[in-house]
Amino acid sequence: MSVQNVLDLIKENNIEWVDFRFVDLSGRAHHISLPASEVEAETFQNGVAFDGSSIQGFRGIEESDMVMVPDTESVYIDPFTAHATLIVMCNIHTPDGERYERDPRSIAQKAEEFLQTAGVGTAAFFAPESEFFIFDDVRYESTTNSSSFSVDSEEAFWNTNRKEEGGNLGFKVRQKGGYVPVAPVDSQQDIRSEMCRLMTEAGLRIERHHHEVATAGQAEINFRFDTLTKTADNLMKYKYIVHNVARQYGKTATFMPKPLFGDNGSGMHVHQSIFNGDTPLFYEKGGYANLSETAIHYIGGILYHAPALIALTNPSTNSFKRLVPGYEAPVNLVFSKGNRSAAVRIPVAAVTPKGCRIEFRTPDSTANPYLAFAAMLMAGLDGIKKKINPTELGYGPYDKNIYDLSDEEKKEIRSVPGTLDEALDALEADYEFLTEGGVFTKEFIDNFIDLKRGEAKAVAIRIHPYEYGLYYDC
């Protein structure tokens, strides 16, 4: 879309405000709104100034001036504002016009550029399956003398005896019993459909929605794949709509990986493939799961670099409450066709040559999508470049339920890091694949590690309520 097209869109839709947005290191969006009457062609060329020192992980106060440069391909009308508002995603530049090396969106674009210069293909396609919970109430605190959290949902199994409904209506979702039931057990059909309606109006192509496995309102909505940066933009749009539709219904939505103990967590399974023009590069009839050698090497790169990669795809302390051996999350660093217990799964049901892809199942939605997708692509490209054979390195294929293996057999399988600190250690030791072509910089990685170690330390030094049960009577 040209700048003139955007200006015409503003006029035709009586837009009052233009909302310029950027994304910080954690993946949270920030925005500044300008009156539509003040937005001209020069605005898209010169950008919108903001204070980078007020954004965690960006710049110091002595060099705080930064610029949002709008991307006209990313616009959509905000479905929630009372005053007609157009949303525009932006890249971050320094005042002298240079790309800012800590801008996640620019890193995603550099990864796409590197793919083309590497001579492998012309485009990488991504499709995340981002799960979330819809709760009715959330409360939490962490102070000097108190630490607690509490969430509630009218459909949760622990509410079979709740009286606040004015007569309990039953039909609660059993623990780990929420996968695709019909109403009235699934009480959130309409809210998910409303989310999908607004996503469609905002430009997403919705493929399906359903209730997920956990009790208390776990959900999933799938949208159509696209190229790397566009998919990251779409995921930001997706999360914005999910959060705000839930709010309109008097509920609250979270993409936190593990908000409930003892039930399934929320992952973000990421489907990915590479094309050269219209030719899919991951398909070869007769190969394992009809995968090409290029795809096998891409898998090799993902699994070989997985410990470091996970610092970017699962970058929260809560991520590792989900990534626990023996539970539902795929912690086993192996690949397999159709097997959901493997970290890398190759879908085989109703797959065409153009639909041939690999699915990395370990990530979750605390990831910044621009950084996570870029890192996955760089790991896969390193595997292709170095012809990393995952079978020779002991990564499978494993075409059986890994959870049912004996303890001796499980010892042969590598697992993901057990904590955020371990993942950051791995990234510190293995980052060169990310800095190929200047996609990520060493300075960016060091800054990211420092930021995340601060989060890990903040959690580690705080007193956990469960410790009172373990140790109070010592």
TrEMBL record:
Major location category of this protein: cytoplasm
E.C. designation(s): 6.3.1.2
Localization of this protein: Cytoplasm
Pfam families per UniProt: Gln-synt_C, Gln-synt_N
Reaction it catalyzes: L-glutamate + NH4(+) + ATP = L-glutamine + ADP + phosphate + H(+)
Gene Ontology MF terms: glutamine synthetase activity
Keyword vocabulary terms for this entry: ATP-binding, Cytoplasm, Ligase, Nucleotide-binding
Keyword Cytoplasm listed: yes
Domain GS beta-grasp per the UniProt entry, residue ranges: 13-97
Class in the EC hierarchy, top level: ligase
UniProt family annotation: Belongs to the glutamine synthetase family.
Name listed for the protein in its UniProt record: Glutamine synthetase
Organism expressing this protein natively: Paenibacillus gansuensis
Gene behind the chain: glnA
